[in-house]
Write a structure and sequence with these properties.
By secondary structure, the protein is α+β, with helices and mostly antiparallel strands. The chain contains three helices and eight strands, in the order ααββββαββββ. About 25% of the residues lie in helices and about 25% in strands. Strand 5 and strand 6 form a beta hairpin.
Length: about 170
């Protein structure tokens, strides 16, 4: 990774820690994002998912350690289902690439606000990784230098309805 990329990730980590986040906050933040995605799935009128919940998996293989999180909430950037359209759902990819802020709609179907305050939920992953990978619906990409996406291969045994975030641990 270039010096500029490393500095950007380090600056992002400092920003995230400045809001009181630490490495353990990642679990709560990713669960909150999944909960919002399940609510948004319902708002769009998508069929019931094959399962509910959030699964975290840690693996260590040949010295490579990863943390993965999977859920079946609304896939990234899925913003329409039949005649139902919610334009704010178009911007998930852009949202994870921004340095802060979020495009989450201001209310959920149940009238509650989406969970989160600073638009840093997903960004907390930078406390443990330099290159998060996202597989969600038709989107399969890795984020380098905290903001540069590049397309990656679809993993084996991937279900299109699933969102899988893979964090190679640093």
């Amino acid at each position: 990774m270039t010096l500029i990329a490393l500095r950007f990730v380090e600056t992002r980590r400092t920003q995230i820690r400045g809001y009181g986040y630490d490495e353990f906050a990642i679990f709560a933040e990713l669960v909150q994002n999944a909960e919002d995605a399940y609510s948004q799935r319902s708002q769009l009128g998508l069929p019931s998912p094959p399962q509910h919940g959030v699964t975290f998996t840690y693996s260590a293989d040949a010295g490579d350690r990863t943390l993965s999180v999977c859920h079946y909430g609304r896939p990234f950037n899925m913003w329409r289902q039949g005649a139902k359209r919610i334009d704010a759902f178009r911007f998930d990819v852009e949202g994870v690439l921004k340095s802060a802020g979020s495009f989450k709609p201001h209310s959920r179907q149940d009238g509650a606000r989406p969970i989160g305050r600073f638009g840093l939920g997903f960004k907390s992953v930078y406390l443990v990784t330099d290159r998060p990978r996202i597989h969600s619906g038709d989107w399969h990409f890795e984020i380098a230098a905290g903001a540069i996406p590049s397309e990656i291969a679809v993993p084996a045994q991937y279900e299109r309805e699933q969102t899988r975030i893979v964090l190679p641990l640093t």
